[in-house]
Amino acid sequence: MAAAVRVGFVGAGKMAQALARGFLAAGLTKGSNIVASCPPQDEHLLKEFQALGAQTTHSNASVAQQCDVVVLAVKPHVMPAVLDDMRASVTSGHVVLSIAAGVSVQSIEDRLEPGCRVLRAMPNTAVQVRCGASVLVRGTSATDEDARTTSALLRAVGSCDLVAEQLVDAVTALSACGPAYLYVAAEAMADGAVKMGVPRDLAQRLAAQTVAGAGRMAVESGRHPAQLKEDVMTPGGCTAAAIHRLEDFRFRAALMGAVEAATLHNRRA
Ligand SMILES: NC(=O)c1ccc[n+]([C@@H]2O[C@H](COP(=O)([O-])OP(=O)(O)OC[C@H]3O[C@@H](n4cnc5c(N)ncnc54)[C@H](OP(=O)(O)O)[C@@H]3O)[C@@H](O)[C@H]2O)c1
Fold first, then answer.
1. Ligand 1 centre from 14 Cα, in Å?
2. Structural domain boundaries of the chain?
3. Measured from the CA of 81, which atom of ligand 1 is nearest?
4. Which residue in 64, 180, 223, 256 has its CB near the most CB atoms, within 10 A?
């Protein structure tokens, strides 16, 4: 499939751009095979796509007419109107891939013609650097081939696991929201270092590289995070003193609560 797959993005915001950049970096498609749409007031977003060599339009229907895979990358609250607008142009010849948080496969299928091949993915912003963590859910009419095609797109920009839909809200809270938790941690760690006299630029670079390196070690080693922590936390050492301080502030409980809060927020949406 590679560079021949024609990928359309309905919604040209952060996630659409991150995915498009990732697909291009992976050589999965080429700029001229990408089409993106968004409302006229967001012309600046379409310029980002034009810079990638993509075609742009204000017509969501036109995206479907020109593409094999249609990625629905709009905010959840506009999804019903977008689907109603596209219903006549989406056929069983398309693969429809929604990345909208909290929007079920069935609610998408219900607004399209019967037989439309719908899948739901939950990626994160790290797809832009091909280090994303995505999950994929198959809709009623999506074929094995559709699951392979969309998995291949998502694997080209990180990892992709096929999951049951009831897990998606919790997965969203973990891996789609997760980068934000880690950015808060990186920012706070750098602030701590600045407080102790480290220049801001250096503190920021070290914090970012620390998050990146720790993540890579966790992924590549497959070891339990507690074991990796023990490698750093020598008896009587400074890491142990720091971890004790984190426990005082219920760091783990805060993170568990964050994932729970985001899951419940998604379930209520
Ligand atoms: N950000 C994340 O980390 C993340 C991770 C996983 C999944 N997601 C999901 O990805 C989706 C997109 O999120 P995002 O962060 O990329 O949001 P975003 O940057 O706001 O992008 C959404 C884009 O869709 C446009 N849009 C609004 N109405 C439209 C319409 N009728 N037709 C076509 N385009 C329309 C928006 O324009 P206006 O600004 O003018 O409304 C905006 O440019 C969301 O459903 C979100 O749940 C996000």
1. 7
2. 7-166, 176-268
3. 31
4. 64
SS3 labels along 65-128? HHCCEEEECCCHHHHHHHHHHHCCCCCCCCEEEECCCCCCHHHHHHHCCCCCEEEEEECCHHHH
Q: Please write the tens of the pLDDT for every residue from 187-209.
A: 999 999 999 999 999 999 999 99
Phi, psi of 235 (to 5 degrees): -60, 130
* Cα angle: 76, vertex 264, 12; to 5 degrees: 20
* Position 4 pLDDT exceeds 90: no
Alpha-carbon gap, residue 56 to 76, rounded angstroms: 22
7-166 carries CATH number 3.40.50.720: yes
SS3 state of residue 141: coil
Residue range 94-151, pLDDT digits in tens: 999 999 999 999 999 999 999 999 999 999 999 989 999 999 999 999 999 999 999 9
Is the CB of 38 inside a 6 Å radius of any atom of ligand 1? yes
